[in-house]
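Note to self: keep these together.
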Amino acid sequence: SVNSATVTVTLTVNAVNDAPVAVGDSYSVTANATLTVAAPGVLTNDSDIDSPSITAALVGSPTHGTLTLNANGSFTYTPAANYSGPDSFTYRASDGLALSNVATVTITVNAVSGLVAAYSFGEGAGTTVADASGRGNNGTILNATWTAAGRYGGALLFNGTNAWITVPDNSSLSLATGMTLEAWVQPTSASSNAYRSIILKERPSGLSYSLYSNNSSRRSSTYINLGAGDQSVQGTASLPSNSWTHLAATYDGTMLRLYVNGALVTSKSVPGSLVTSGGALRIGGNSVWGEWFMGYIDEVRIYNRALSAGEIQTDMNAPIVP
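Structure:
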């Protein structure tokens, strides 16, 4: 028999591109803060057996915030002002030839820690102010007038003689270990030596904690009681009339601080614990000394901890969402 010559058969195996595989992710951020995630970000747990290089492309935007998603997987997310709860966005990974499945990135926006009362004064009518903190510390209005001319939306105008808001005592308002008191105020009369209370938690013949727009020295101030008399610090200048000013007082168990328009103006070391009581919380006046506020009050917040300067500045620039 005769054998043929050996022939070489060349086979070409053409590659088939496999699409990337995207896997969902979970993150969390505090309300009124920005979440920043560096590369590879959402691509960290994604894969492609054909290519070491993949990019991210946004599919669906979040509902309760703003997002910037970059091709390298990094992103920044800022929740809507004062929003807390779940949010999410979707994306695909790409290798330049094929797209992955749609993956979901879940973001939990945690409520600001320690908020026990928050009043936007956006109701515009009626005799009740709603507490937006979720603690149920609603207040009843007496003789204060609704106005749309607030720092953010609505506000209440106090007449300086007999107008206030009363919030019944609640255990959440017993601020033994720390506090932050905040408000936007616009006095409608020039400073005098009359005390003008903005926030005051009453106790028999005295106070537990308070925030004043004016005292006998014509200064904004805060007073707290640690069991051996009141302790206080005051600002360096009188508040302007017919102009909005943001005031905040904090106490962390050691330092008592006062902020004006987000800037620390004075502080004092007074270690101790705040005296608690079953008295009402008053806004715009009090039943112990009167001390009626004259002007507009808006955006009142109370925390059971001392906020940082940065947190106060964030509050100052973000309206309360009812």
